[in-house]
Design a protein that fits this description.
The protein has 232 residues and is of the alpha/beta class. The chain is built from six helices and eleven strands. Strands 1, 2, 3, 4, 5, 6, 7, 8, 9, 10 and 11 form an eleven-stranded mixed beta sheet that branches. The longest helix has 27 residues. The two termini are 15 Å apart. The mean pLDDT is 90.
Length: 232
Amino acid sequence: MRRIGIIAAMPGELKPLVQGWKQVRASQGEAAWKGTIDSTACVAVCAGMGRQAAERACALAAQQGPLDALVSIGWAGALSCGMQPGSAYVINEVVDAATGEAFPTSFPSGQENVVVLKLVSIDHVAQAAEKRRLAESFRAVLVDMEAVTVARIARRQGIGFYCLKAVSDVATETLPDFSAYTDNQGHLRLPALLAHVAIRPRFWPGLARIGKNGRQGAIAIAAALGPLMAGA
C-alpha cells in the first residue's frame, strides 16, 4: 500500500484531517496520527514551526515505515490580496528565501486553465511590510516557515513532494511578532504571547480573524487532500 507523510506545524492544522485516526505520539509538543485516505496509508505529524521542527516531523513520519511522498500542509500568510482565507490552495513551487533554491511539487504541470502558485519559505513569521517585499522579490503568493524543508527532505530521499496550504492571515494584517514568542523547538509560548497582546488592542481583531481563518482553512485542507492525492 502506498504511504505518505503529512507534515504540519500545529495540531490545529491537522485536527479536522485526523479525526478518527489512531494517535501514535503525543509528547513534548510533538504529535502523530496514523490513518488512511481512500486506499493510501498516511501518517500525519506536527512538531512546531520552522526548519528544525519540520525536520523532526519528517523524521517521526519516517519512523512509521517507508514513505512514497511527503506533503506539507497547514496555514500560510497571504502575499497577494487575491488569496482568500477559508480556501485550500495547491502549491506548484516552493522557494527558499535564504538561497533562492526552488522546489517544484509533484502535482501534474502544464494543465490548461491552471494557475501556477508559488510559496516562499522564510525563518520567521512575516509582517505586512515584509510580505510586500517577498511578493515582489519571489513572485510568490504565500509565505510559510516549513514547506521548503519538507521539499528538501523529499528531494534528498527521492520521493514525491506535495504542498497544500490555507491562508491564516491576509497580506495587510496587523499582527504581533510571533517569532518573539516561539521557543527554540518551534513551539509558541502562548501565555507570554497573550500577556503581550492583552494590553495592545490593535492586535485583537487580527488575532480573532486568524483563529477563524485557521479553523476554516484546516477544514478546507482536510476536504481537499483526499481528492488531490488520488489524482496525483
